[in-house]
C-alpha cells in the first residue's frame, strides 16, 4: 500500500470483511484476489473453494460438503417470462475427514412466488424449493444469493464518457413457430439484438484467406482436393476483444456465384443489416436451446455458426444459400426419429424439403430415420447416422419437422447468464485468432530468415569456389 495514491476528492472507506465473503464476490464477479505485500494471487479455483463451498449437516445429521453455483432461471408464466433465483448444488458425503461417494446434484430455487414447473407440468427431478430445505441449508442458500459488490457507479462514469448510446432497436419478426410459443424466445432475441449486435455501424464483416475441401463432383479416387476459400468473421468495433467466426474452414472460391451476396475479396466490409438480423436470430435460437439445461455452462464449438454462410448439406449435391431477407429462418424444431426427437435448427427450404442442422450428438438407426430423406443411404455409417459428429446438416421432408410446444416454454437458464457465456465465447475466439496471427507472423519471419541465410550461404560458397579455382 506504500505506493498507493488515492485520486483527488475521493472518499476512502475501510471495512473489515470475512475472507469467504471477499472470495464469493471475487468468484461471482470473475475476479481474483491479491494479497498485498505477500505476492499471493488467489485464482478462480481458490475463490470457488473459499466462497462457494461450505460444510453442513444433512437430515441424518451427517457432515456434508455443499458446493453452490448461482443461477437465474427464466420461467414462463401467465404474465410473460420472469427471472427466478436458483442454485445448482452438489452435496457430497464426508467420511474420515474426506469427501466420499458420488455427490447428489440438485436444483434449489426460491419458491415463494410459485413452483418451478418442467415441460410436462410436473416438478422437475432433483429439485427442491427453499422452503423444503433445513434451516442451516436455507441460510447457505440465502448467503450465496446475496448481491455482489455494486460497481454500477464506475459503469455509469464509463457510459457518460462513451460517445455511443445503445437504444432498443429490436423488432420481433414472425417465425414458422407459432407466435403464442415465442414470448420467452423474443425476450432472449431482444437481449442479443440490443446487447451484442445492436447496430451495423458497430460491426465489421471481415473476409480472410482460407483453405477448404472442394465439394465438386469427381469420379476419381484421388485424395481430398484443398482449394482456395474465403473465411468470414464479425468484428465488434466497441469490443476489440470479441470475434465471431462464421463458416468453419470457409467457402471455396470456386463456389461463388451471383446468388451469393457476400464479398469474395479479402478485406473489411460494412456489415449488411440483413446479415446482422439473420445472425441475431441464429444466435438467439442456439442460446435458447442450450439454455434448456439449467446450471450447465454454455458449450459452443468454433464452427457453431457455419450455416450463416452458404454450405452443402451432407445429402445435397449442391450449395445451399441462406436467404438473409427471410425472417422465418432459422427456427428451432424437432425431427421425428422413431421414438426420439432430434433437435434441429431449420435454415431454409429447398424443393426437396427443409435444410436442417443437428443440435445434439445422437446416433439414429436407419429404421428410425424419417421416410423420404434424399440420399438416405449416403448418410449411413454402420447402419446408423451419427448426427452432430459425422453428419451435421441434411435435407429432410417438410412433414418430418415438428414443433413440440414444451420445447419453447418452461424454465431455462436466464438471459443474463446466457449472454455472459456467449461474450466469453467471443473473447475466446478473439484470443485464439490473435495467437494464430502471432504464430503466422513468427513463421513468416522465420521463413524470411531462412531464405536470407540460404542466400548468404550461397554467396559465401561461391566466393570460396572462386578463391580455390583462381591461379
Walk me through what this model shows:
The longest helix is centred in the C-terminal third of the chain and has 55 residues, at 415-469. Residues 119-123 and 154-163 have low confidence and may be disordered. The chain has eight helices and 19 strands. Strand 12 (331-337) and strand 13 form a beta hairpin. The protein starts with 18 loop residues before the first helix and ends with a helix. With 471 residues, the protein is an alpha+beta fold. The strands form five sheets. Strands 3, 4, 5, 6, 7 and 19 form a six-stranded mixed beta sheet that branches. It is 27% helix and 29% strand.
List keywords for this structure.
six-stranded mixed β-sheet; globular; membrane; 471 residues; five-stranded antiparallel β-sheet; single chain; 8 helices; transmembrane; alpha+beta; 2 domains; transmembrane helix
